[in-house]
Amino acid sequence: MSPATIKINIASLSNSSLRQYNVGLKKWWKFCLSTNTGVFLASINQVLRFLTNEFENGASYGPINSFRSAVALILGPEIGSNPDIKRFCKGASNLRPALPRYNVTWDPKIVLDSISKWFPNEEIPLQHLSGKLATLLALTTGQRLQTLIAIDIRNIEKTEEHIAIKIPAHLKTSGHQRLQPNLILPFYPEDPTICVARALEIYLDRTRHLRNETTSPFIS
């Protein structure tokens, strides 16, 4: 694969993916220097040797798979589809499964009970309303923080039943075959203390005179 092609391939990655791949590429570079292996011309056996070294150094399936993807970025997609490498990764998964990202979970009811006391929305301090809105948005949509930051008030539409928010901005989860997020925030008259749509509505009204040219709903 030519350097120009590699450069274009790298441009396809998000910043967070690039940081993740950077770890694997640095390890690959050091391996190639220490074993006199061609960085861009390595064989399947040499890649397997590299992955084996990392496994023996304690890497679990998650990092091993990430290293494989990083190397495939510069050597070509056959690295990811090669039967021997796929079998190796399956073996690594069986011998040393990836650990769960979170060791504990938490009860959202505790949070909801707490922020429900921040009411009425028209009277509580703006800082409390801002935190309440951000929390309710995260809980009701399940979206990443990056998505919530990308909300633009020009893309907010209100109906009698809900508030809809379109997210046209490019995100980490964006892809040419994936639809962009469309957040639906239903009004919840059963409990207005935790109604995310009403909280957003009041927050936008209370901050209208503060935002000037800012199109992000959250202001500092």
UniProtKB/TrEMBL annotation:
Q: Which InterPro entries match?
A: Integrase_recombinase_N
Coiled-coil residues: none
Alphabetized GO MF terms? DNA binding
Q: Which UniProt keywords apply?
A: DNA-binding
Region forming the signal peptide: none
PANTHER family registered for this protein in UniProt:
CORE-BINDING (CB) DOMAIN-CONTAINING PROTEIN, PHAGE_INTEGRASE DOMAIN-CONTAINING PROTEIN
Identification of the protein by name: Tyr recombinase domain-containing protein
